[in-house]
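Hi Y.,

Following your request, here is the sequence exactly as I used it, all 254 residues.
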Amino acid sequence: MELKDRVAIVTGGATGIGRAVCFRLAKAGAAGIVVNFARSAEDAESAAQELRALGTHPLPVKADVADEAAVKAMVVATIEHFGRLDVLVNNAGTTHFIPHSDLDALTEEVWNEILGVNLKGTFYCCRAAAPELKKTRGVIVNVASIAAHRATGSSIAYGISKAGIVQLTRMLAGALAPDVRVNSVSPGLVSSRWFRKRFGEEAAQAQEAGFAAGIPLRAVATPDDVALAVMGFVENDMITGQDLIVDGGRSVNY
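Below is the corresponding structure, written out as tokens. Let me know if you'd prefer a different format.
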């Protein structure tokens, strides 16, 4: 896929991996990018200003992906504004930090929130966008996690939600073929502002240093590293139903 004159929706596009994906799409020539956000309106507008400077036309759209009506409205707004849709990147996600041994902390509310955003939200976006993507022979890239493949991650519910995304990717690749390609990326630890805001700079640096020491490439991924993996799936027209781990080789060390 050539990105010139194409239009994309990036959920959770205001910060982190989503923001990096928006910039990569813009640099590749995308004509329009919907920067989806649920809470970070200021960050979405900041991203939009930078995207305009790159020559693309951004459209910040507030929508909680766990709300199917809001998702449908976002797709409608995209078509009304740009007239087409070619790329959907499902990056929006949430979690709770719960020790895996603490089963009682996995309340119904926790399950509903994590599955609602991460898994059901991804499906809602795919379903709403599919008719438009079929018209343009478009592509979907879902952001999963290394927690989909290993018994790791911030909580059991989070890992299961991400494993669900990987399987959803495979099944939609078949369901939407041959018109729409569907792939996923599974990052390991990513150096992000989100973790620093929650735990502080010192804790984040300590965790990243510890992880890097056990990674073959001796480095922790950046949001842009993950965005580059997303772009590989966007631009290669012969790949569908695949998941790519982006963790510097850590997962090869069992």
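The mean pLDDT is 96.

Thanks again,
Q.
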